[in-house]
Amino acid sequence: MAPDTPSPSPTAATAEPGSVSTPLLRRRGSYTRSMSHARDELRSFRSCLRWMCIDHSSSDASSASSAASSYLVFASLAVAVPCAALAALPQRRAYDTQVQASLTISAALAYATLYSLVRRRGLRRLLYLDRLRHDSQDVRAGYIVQLAGSFRLLACFVLPCFLADASYKVFWYCANRPFGGGAYWWWWNAAACALEMASWMYRTAIFFMACVLFRTICYLQILRMTGFARDFGQCADVAAVLRQHRRIRVQLRRISHRYRRFILYCLILVTVSQFTALLAATRPHAQVNLAIAGELALCSMSLVTGLLICLHSAAKITHKTQSITSVAAAWHADATINSLERDQENPRTPSKAFLQHQHAPVSPFPVASASSGEESDDDESRSEDSVDTSRFASFHVTNVSFQKRQALVTYLENNRAGITVFGFVVDRTWLHALFMIEFSLVMWLLGKTIGIS
Asked: Is the pTM of this model over 0.85?
């Protein structure tokens, strides 16, 4: 056999003589990501990324051209237009340098995050759509609805900011006319205003897109944890509970690893930009009104809103995941109290007839512990972040030993999952500490500038 002749495959060995065998699977490097179709749930996401010129999930033939166009659009709208506006405008706005720097850095951070995630993993793997086959029908349906509603949420953040900035830009150019007031210079003023509005729209859209994408991914884990907590009391296999919890922990660790730099750098950027804005607004003889500092206020609101989207999503999924420990503890206590072992101190022990009934067919419905009126009142007073612990199957239904249940509770107590940022769990305690640090820095800065003590 010649050296360059490939070795026969098992399929070719069983084929008839003279027939040409074809491999069942192509090489791994020749796979291409699927394109959008009419019923694709990612069609809107791909269209949005394509309009923002950051769609890198295409095939190898067009990846070079799409990457080049993406770099060109980002360099033009996020870097060149703000720099040209700062250099070419004869009249500068009061806080224009700080606003342009903050928006450009935030857009660069979001662009680098989206480019890295979409380029390496693809949009379907990034949104965990390839893992939905292991989830229930309720989780899949809820996640598809959330994917469709993500663009309405993105539009609710981007469009008001764009309309407010467009109104401010039009007012400023009409009032100041930096290139002159003649008929010829009117076109220059209109072109400069349109370019600045396009640059603002592009940068804020990229930043909010990265934040909404993180929120959508976290919502999938919230759906899983909600279904997991709802069906916890009906699960009789501790090993199945451990496998499901470990699966969720692995996915949360991956999400944390992918977005930890974005959350940390976004937190640093927002903190620095807000303190710089506060220092500039409280300096002596500083003019602060809507006509002068309106763009600075709008930029600050956009950056803080994007950061709050990420922190709220991370804290919510962390709270949902850690609340599973209370669900397991309540299930363990309910099963222990309702066990069939005779308690000498309890006069209301089960009779022998009931003991003989323990091998009878099991009812598929859980045992209710309260009346319907009390349950409705509890449902109304329960917060949206809590989990349902009011219904558990009794011990003779689950038939799980005390040692297994205690081991499960101990495992959940010592393996608290959630979104982490370089080892720090993003929960409510972490947010409270962060708020106190930020508030202390603000009061210190105000004490140094305007004398608040």
From this structure: no
